[in-house]
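Trying the structure run again after the queue cleared.
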Amino acid sequence: MSEKTPPPTEPSPGGLPARDGSAGGAAPASPPPPAPSVPPLPPLPPLPAAPVSTPPAGTHGFPGAPPALPGHVPAAPYRHPVSPAYGAAVTERPATASGALGVVALVLAIVAFLIPALVAGIAGYPIGAGVGEQLNVASAEGWDDLSVLSPVRGWILAAEIAFWAGTVLGIWAIAQGIVAIVRGRGRGQGIAALVVAVVAPMVFGVVLYAAALAGVAAGAAGF
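Done. Tokens:
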């Protein structure tokens, strides 16, 4: 039995491979062209160094300072802003507390000092004069019920009202003066208010006693 040989295949025109996939007699395909080369960028020139001004050694912007380090630029010393209108340094002033609290306390103390003392001087003399007149007509037993004061009860009432009004104003002045001293709102006026308010009742008693004594002497003498 003889072997059958396959029929020879004809090469395709143009050297392309045959349709059945067999290689033809043409040369292999050429490789792709290389990519165009980019020239390298030139190097950048170095930046110039900034000039550094260094003060003389031992000064550093102000006398008595340590020497400046190499390459260190000292900062300018601080100066207060200057007002262009006046040419003087503008400085901040601390806020001061109002002294109205102490002033009011001092005014109250003065009123508590003057008004009761004035009323005591005015009312004390008629009171003493009325009592002095009764000394000539009243017996020793008549002093037990204070009946000798009935003709001058109006002046006595006026003196009592002045005393109690001055007492209320004096207590108010003392309390407000203490607050003014503690808070620093008119400390000097607060201290003065304390002194005047404490002395006011003593002055009232002295003035009333002196005026009444003068009235008693005048009444007893029959003036």
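Helices lie at 100-135, 153-183, 187-220. Worth checking whether this holds up in the mutant runs.
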